[in-house]
Design goal:
The protein is mainly beta. It has two domains: about 90 residues, no CATH class; about 45 residues. It is about 10% helix and about 40% strand. It contains two helices and ten strands. The strands form three sheets. Strands 1, 4, 5, 6 and 7 form a five-stranded antiparallel sheet that branches. The longest helix has 8 residues. The protein is elongated, with a radius of gyration of 21 Å. About 5% of the residues have low confidence.
């Protein structure tokens, strides 16, 4: 079994900093006793921040330091899942804020965080007036808009 001495990665947890029943605390080292086996035993993390969303759709994301990482063949794609003997969550990566690179990446891959609003066509904000023109349909009485609070992407439906 070949091990990588150390590397930095990203770990997702639920809102309470638990992953598969294991409770984490920021800044503390944890050590797995026993065999390391990807997807079965050891502490798991991803090489890229976008990878965690393959495993957790909601929750918190942390940058982590990992030691004694099992050297497995890399799989194609963003997930880049790894397993290690020792892990420490070093800082939480906030998923809000307009200049947050992780949040922008999540929006790019379609993981938007919408808020809802209803508007009459005459009150539709000017920057969304294209919806009426493109559809050539002025019969809508009310629009229900779903707008991503991070990137501004918009979906709508007739109410």
């Amino acid at each position: 079994m070949k091990l990588i001495k150390s590397m930095t990665g990203y770990k997702a947890t639920d809102k309470d900093m638990c992953c598969r029943g294991f409770q984490f605390k920021l800044g503390e080292w944890y050590e797995h006793q026993g065999e390391l086996k990807l997807c079965e035993s050891g502490f798991h993390f991803c090489e890229q921040p976008s990878g965690v969303w393959n495993f957790y759709q909601k929750g918190r994301v942390f940058e982590c330091e990992a030691e004694d990482v099992l050297d497995t063949p890399r799989e194609a794609g963003a997930a880049g899942k790894r397993v290690c003997r020792r892990i420490r969550l070093t800082r939480e990566i906030a998923l809000d804020g307009e200049n947050n690179a992780v949040r922008k990446l999540l929006c790019f891959f379609g993981f938007h965080e919408y808020f809802m609003c209803r508007v009459q066509p005459e009150n539709l904000p000017r920057k969304y007036a294209w919806m009426l023109e493109v559809k050539n349909d002025f019969s809508f009485t009310t629009y229900q808009l779903r707008i991503c609070k991070h990137c501004g992407v918009l979906t709508e439906e007739k109410v």
